[in-house]
Design goal:
Shape: globular
Distance between the termini: 57 Å
InterPro entries: MbnB/TglH/ChrH, Xyl_isomerase-like_sf
Helix content: 25-40%
Strand content: 15-25%
Organism: Corallococcus exiguus
Number of domains: 3
Number of helices: 20
Structural class: alpha/beta
Largest sheet: 8 strands, parallel
Protein name: DUF692 family protein
CATH superfamily of the largest domain: Divalent-metal-dependent TIM barrel enzymes
Length: 548
């Protein structure tokens, strides 16, 4: 296992940073933002797979990050690294993690203390399970953290996790202080995660800071989130696409002078348009001025790796968060329900990318979603066989259709299983004077006409969402109408267009004469004059066509 070469680590001053998933399609684009406003921030903290080659293959901005890393330093924040859970990371993963961090020059690696993945499969939406804040949780988290640190030649920086259900009796900051004392590892203080604990526990925002070892904090995170109230409780949901709460800006200003070893402040602005990210970064730049500071030395962690006991019951908390066990059996029933609702929402959002029709027909209400997350198919995701959430849902849906046959639901499932196959081959580009289908568009055909079902699902989503804004509840009972529509498909063959989105596919219903007229383009480009003017205008207006 890798060990630090000396008794101390040297940590450089990083300054103010912006987080990124290194995807060219995501906002904000960190390098465009920095080019437009030089000096706006100093480094990029990026999330990517643990293995360097996997990150190169998946992150479309990786080449630019790699090219500019000498001028724009980086911190590596892995997308999933277990700092708690029933199993330790394999030695091969730790070797890849260390090689990745050293290759990009990341002076440390940070991650939330939580259970992120099982069998190499991350939980949907990277929504980890938080350990209980008790001595058992400290012991098991320490086993994970020291095991990881033993495989790293750079420091592991441990981050306080986000909280909805409060379990274990310790304050979140006391838990992290004990974990630091047990491991000797430096700390990353996430202000939004702290806010989530304080609200869930019914405590003032600054509770626990006076006794917390702020002198061991080397990085601070600040990000957006949503505060909601349920009954007598208030919860903070960590959602980086949301605006930063004013309370967190104020807390950052107060905490900064109390962190003498602080090396970095990171704005996790994932999903913020550049003009919005610009406003937040300018405000943060005033708190963290651009300057050069000397490196500092901190003691290298050399604690022995303890045994993983499992006394903190990770599998039981996984079951509580996915509806396998009743919330009433948990230590914090109301917090568990909030946590479960958030998990179900994330699962639904992920499924709707590939199964917008089938998911609403079979798992629209919480009961249906819980039926899926309690299923053998969902649990089988995490057995190391490399299956995806989409694959698990398809297997579960097929079983449901077989158990309660419905021609309409079976047709919707068959349609959505067919869509990815339309994009297995890339069509030739049009030559001058030719017209072709748009690059992200294909034509499809199906033996039953589901035009009305596609329309009904979109219309009912819009209707029920609008009513929810007014009445404060989503009337899921209204989705019963979909069963009626699904039961009356029209006669085929049905022709339609398919659009590939960033993730998933969209079925585009077309008037029969448009679908028939475009059919000639299914085999490749045609001369512009081969299409009637009205069809050319219609296809271009719908974004279905491209010309050379």
């Amino acid at each position: 296992m890798t060990r630090p070469a000396s008794d101390s680590w040297s940590l450089p001053w990083m300054g103010l940073g912006l987080s990124s998933n290194l995807s060219a399609s995501d906002v904000p684009h960190p390098y465009r933002l920095l080019d437009a406003s030089p000096g706006l921030f100093d480094f990029v903290e990026y999330s990517a797979p643990i293995a360097l080659e996997e990150a190169r293959a998946q992150a479309t901005l990786f080449p630019e990050m790699w090219r500019r890393r000498s001028d724009v330093p980086v911190l590596f924040h892995p997308v999933h690294l277990n700092l708690w859970g029933p199993e330790l990371e394999p030695a091969s993963a730790l070797a890849e993690l260390d090689a990745h961090a050293r290759a990009v020059g990341s002076p440390w690696v940070g991650n939330d203390v939580g259970w992120w993945h099982a069998g190499g499969q991350p939980f949907p939406g990277y929504l980890y399970v938080t350990p209980p804040f008790n001595d058992a949780g400290v012991r098991d988290s320490a086993a994970h953290a020291l095991h990881i640190q033993a495989g790293l030649s750079v420091p592991l920086v441990i981050e306080n996790p986000a909280v909805l259900a409060t379990r274990g009796g310790l304050h979140a900051l006391d838990f992290m202080a004990k974990l630091h004392a047990r491991t000797g590892l430096p700390l990353l203080l996430d202000l939004g995660h702290l806010f989530s604990h304080q609200l869930s526990a019914g405590l003032p925002l600054r509770t626990g800071l006076d006794g917390f070892p702020l002198d061991q904090v080397v990085e601070i995170h600040i990000a957006g989130g949503v505060v909601t109230r349920r009954g007598g409780r208030t919860f903070y949901v960590d959602d980086h696409t949301q605006p930063v709460r004013e309370e967190l800006f104020e807390l950052l200003a107060e905490v900064l002078p109390r962190c003498p070893r602080l090396r970095a402040v990171t704005f996790e602005g994932d999903g913020h348009p550049p003009e919005v990210a610009l406003a937040s970064l300018r405000r943060l730049r005033a708190l963290v001025p651009k300057e050069s500071r000397a490196s500092i030395d901190i003691p290298a962690a050399r604690e022995p790796v303890p045994a993983l006991t499992g006394d903190s019951r990770p599998l039981a908390l996984f079951d509580a968060g996915h509806g396998v066990t009743p919330a009433t059996e948990d230590e914090d029933p109301e917090g568990t329900r909030a946590d479960r609702d958030f998990r179900l929402a994330v699962v639904a959002e992920q499924l709707d990318k590939d199964w917008p029709l089938t998911r609403l027909l079979l798992a629209a209400a919480p009961e249906g979603l819980e039926s899926f997350t309690r299923s053998r198919e969902y649990r089988g995701l995490f057995d190391g066989l490399g299956k995806s959430l989409s694959h698990a849902f398809a297997s579960w849906a097929r079983k449901r259709v077989m158990a309660a046959p419905s021609d309409g639901v079976a047709a919707a499932l068959s349609l959505e299983m067919m869509l990815p196959h339309a994009f297995l081959q890339a069509p030739p580009a049009p030559a001058p004077g030719q017209v072709a289908l748009a690059e992200d568009v294909r034509l499809g055909s199906f033996p039953a006409d589901l035009t009305e079902l596609v329309f009904a699902i979109r219309a009912l989503r819009r209707h029920l969402t609008g009513r929810a804004w007014a009445c404060g509840a989503l009337e899921v009972s209204g989705l019963e109408a979909l069963a009626q529509v699904a039961a009356r498909p029209g006669p085929g063959p049905w022709r339609f267009a398919i659009r590939r989105k960033a993730i998933g596919f969209e079925v585009l219903t077309l008037p029969p004469e448009v679908a028939a007229g475009l059919q000639g383009l299914a085999d490749g480009p045609l001369p512009v004059e081969a299409l009637p003017r009205w069809l050319l205008a219609e296809g271009q207006a719908r974004g279905l066509l491209r010309r050379a």
